[in-house]
Predict the structure.
Amino acid sequence: MTPPQGGAAGVSAEGASGTPPEGAPEKAPDAATETGSPRVLRRWHRLPIVVRLVLAVAVTMSLVLSGATALVYERVQHALDQQLDADLATYYHDLRNDLHAGRGLGGPDGSAYQVLDTRGRIIQASDLVRAKQLLTSAEVSSATHGSTVRLDFGGLFSLDPHTLRIRAQRVRLPDRSTVIAVAALRRGHRDEALRELLAQLGIAAGLTLIAASYVGYRTARAALDPVERYRRGAATLADNTYGVRLPIPEDRDDELTRLGHTLNQMLDRLEASAERERRFLADASHELRTPLSLLRAELDVALHRPRTASELTDTLRAVDSEVQRLIDLTNALLDLEQLGATEHLTRTPVDLHELIAFAIAPHRTAAARAHRTLTVHAAAGTVDVDAAWIRPAISNLVDNALHHSHGDIGITAAIANGTLRLTVTDEGPGFPADFLPKAFERFTRAEDSRTSPGSGLGLAFVAAVAASHGGTAHAANTGHGATVTLDIPC
């Protein structure tokens, strides 16, 4: 085919490099290109997950089916073309032999022929193509120079019922003249077979796509329905509905079931935490109300009638005692809060003997005054702990032993397998049996110690120090007293 006229003149002034000519205005950036993709992504992410999954399945299956359809079509087309080309080659050779022999030209059903001179004029032709110019001037020139021209006349979906597969080549006759023999076979059966194949493949692909999309939708719904049930179950917590747990099937052990168990465990911890907070607020309110009420009573008595200097002094001492109690309670609460919020303790190597000696030093005077002995058995070595918290924990244990027991107090410290075990043992009645399970809870005090000073936060503080180090605290009774043990990784 000849190129369209004026093709060279149609080249833009930018040239092959794409550089605009000098002085030309620069192109404005395409807003659709810059903002189109983010807008499409935003719309995509706004779609429900089920819709996104179904669309993803549909698009993926469309690509797979398109590839399979193209492969099947190409293989069938190739086989049909091979057969048609073989028949056309046979017919062309018969046509050329008839021209050499001077016999009458003909052919099988569905065939056609033309004999052209070197200028493209029709010398002979079959009835089907007698009035049709099958070759262009360029194709005639190519065949005249010895090339074999192969082409199709009419397309696969052409309205012309006489579509042809053509082969043209020059032939030198016995009289030394040169003609161009054009052999053609109808492609009707081949095209009809390909059209039928495309229709069948299209129907099969459409049905497969619908089925895959439906299966994808049902699978997505089945996978996400438990998540929706979990969401509805968790939403009830916003209404302060306690004791609600997510419904989890007992006969499954898949990812969603494990997620449900994890969420239920989280709900257990949240509910327990909320319960502790409510109990903490109630206990703290009670503990704070008592000293404040006593303060108010002392001040009211002092203000209602004249008091002597001695009476005012006694009142101020009582007020000071209650204020100190409030300060101690507040400091204990702040210490517990700080321990709970501390993510990383400042661990430093500390000599174990010095750690214990420093912790119990303030209590030696009180022990000597009560004719009691503080005995220390500590292993030699250093431990990697936060001494700022470990010292007051040991001090609290010794102070509790001094106030709630009698006899000597023993402090032992040993290091084994990277764990520091601190034990404080006293001689006395020990812990009440009903108190042991809740000994380390906040504001928990044994019945026989409620009349003595204290807030019930000492053992809670000790347990919090151990937990902050990744350790544990344990209380038990011995045959002759009580013992509290701390196991702290060091």
